[in-house]
Amino acid sequence: PRQERNSTPKALEAIKKEWDRLRSIGTWDESKVREWDQVAAECRAKGTKCHVGRIFDICVEKGAELPKNDPGRKFKGRAVFQGNNVRDENWEAAMFQELSSCPATMEAGKAADCYGLFEGHECQQADAEQAYTQSKLGGTPTWVRLPREQWPEAWAGMKDPVCPLVLALYGHPDAGGFWEKHCDKHLISQGFSPITDWRSCYWHDRLKLLLVVYVDDFKMSGPKDNLVEGWKLIRDGVKTDDPAKSGKYLGCDHQVGTMASPTTGKRVRSIQ
């Protein structure tokens, strides 16, 4: 709750970090701030469309069930677009392109796990850094209102300041679709081919790599010696953290070990 957040220094620090990050990458353009009534009137006069919505922040405590000093327990701030309350230049409910994303299925992740157990293979994963904001926001021009406490000093005296939203901020109804298009375009340019009828899954024929993308979670398996090049191809256009062996994925911990084969009795690699 806001009262608890405002009395918790680490929570306030997490919120400030998020606002500073979004500003540093140019998520919206404060240099083009205008009064909303002027923007709307101009669009009506020209017969063009525009949308307006607000950005608000939230704070959560990840791993709240863990002990106080556990590194997995931390505050995380998010500034998001309120996608359920967007209006157009006539103050009517905004209409969107419905570019809904289609992340990979759980079965695809299990297929990557299996492929990673082959002799000489390995399965690794990495998270895209703030995925949606790595892509531009297309479609109808969208203007955003910032919370009063986030107004720059230069906005003092303005009545209803808004500025253009540039990147696909979380919460915007089409943000996931624009991120997926951005990611798909880059992967294809690097030699990854979409797998027919299995959305957000790719095969790199030269490197024999299977890639599964679940929103911002990348899981890739194949010949161990080829994984380094595969990740380099991905990270040439998508910012991710450093790849690591399979661990927690979609809420499940994955551990690779060995077990006796039910048919031969020999020890074989397995995953739990």
What does this structure look like?
The chain has 272 residues and is of the alpha+beta class. It has helices spanning 2-6, 9-24, 36-46, 106-116, 175-189, 224-235; strands at residues 34-35, 51-62, 74-81, 87-88, 121-127, 142-145, 161-164, 192-194, 201-204, 209-214, 217-223, 244-245, 248-249, 252-253, 256-260, 267-271. Helix content is 26%, strand content 28%. The strands form four sheets. Strands 1, 2, 3, 4, 6 and 7 form a six-stranded mixed β-sheet that branches. Strands 8-9-10-11-5-12 form a six-stranded antiparallel β-sheet.
Question: Can you tag this structure with a few keywords?
Answer:
single chain; 272 residues; alpha+beta; 6-stranded mixed β-sheet; 6-stranded antiparallel β-sheet; 6 helices; 26% helix
